[in-house]
Design goal:
This protein is α/β, with parallel strands linked by helices. The chain has a six-stranded parallel beta sheet. A three-stranded antiparallel beta sheet has the order 2-6-5. α8 links the parallel β7 and β8. The protein is globular, with a radius of gyration of 18 Å.
């Protein structure tokens, strides 16, 4: 497969391709879809709480709560305050099947395959929950995942509807990437980095990369990318799958 970003580069010790997930690889956001997928198949009465989800969204829009609080509230409303991993895991798998079957940009899959063929280690870095992102990543052959973690304070079997650490978004995501690089003994000087994202919040990750690609970008990122010398691509152009 021909790599659309193929350019002669030195023989680095490491090659890393960093991907955002929602609206970068996927055609739309996955977070709300996952919550509704779980509620429909587990406790349908929770769908009656959707107006409260809307109120939480309004509170976020008015900056009364932050993203982390919004995500925890919605998870508590549609999945529960506390739930068993063994109960949710099959639903995460079925949701991953649904996303991979109908919710991906074929061009993103082509780029993932090209990066893999070129010897890049594939890193998925996303604000979505590990709870289901891991299942999607396995299906895509992603090597490593950084995602938002949930609290498992009373053991591996039970998960609480509250975040463990920061929401893996923006600067917090890049801090997680930096920690991951250090933990894997990947030093910047001997590493070639590609980064892909649709959203301006990933400016730190894109700025860090040798090759940054604004994929089907949001309005702000579309304006910023040319100023930064970042490539702009529209992965919606190719339909299929």
């Amino acid at each position: 497969m021909e790599d659309p970003l193929a350019t002669p580069i030195p023989d680095y010790a490491h090659r890393v391709a960093m991907y955002d997930m929602d609206r970068t690889i996927t055609r739309s956001g996955t977070y709300s879809g996952f919550l509704i997928h779980v509620a429909q198949r587990r406790q349908q009465w929770r769908l009656l709480l959707l107006p409260l989800v809307g109120l939480a969204g309004a509170a976020y829009s008015l900056r009364l709560i932050d993203r982390s609080r919004l995500k925890a509230i919605n998870l508590r409303l549609l999945v529960g305050k506390r739930f068993r991993r063994t109960e949710i895991a099959p639903l995460a798998e079925s949701y991953a099947d649904k996303v991979v079957a109908r919710g991906l940009h074929p061009a993103a899959l082509d780029q993932i395959a090209a990066d893999r063929e070129a010897g890049y280690r594939l890193l998925l870095a996303t604000a979505s929950f590990h709870l289901y992102v891991d299942a999607i990543a396995r299906r895509l052959g992603i090597d490593d995942v950084l995602a938002t973690r949930l609290d498992e304070s009373d053991g591996a079997d039970h998960i609480h509807a509250r975040l463990a650490g920061d929401n893996c978004y923006g600067e917090a995501k890049f801090a997680r990437i930096s920690d991951w690089l250090a933990a894997n003994e990947i030093t910047r000087e001997v590493t070639h980095v590609r980064a892909y994202s649709d959203h301006v919040s990933d400016h730190p990750m894109l700025h860090f990369a040798d090759e940054a690609v604004a994929t089907t970008p949001s309005r702000k990122l579309k304006l910023l990318a040319p100023q930064m010398g970042w490539q702009v691509v529209d992965w919606r152009a190719r339909r299929g799958r």
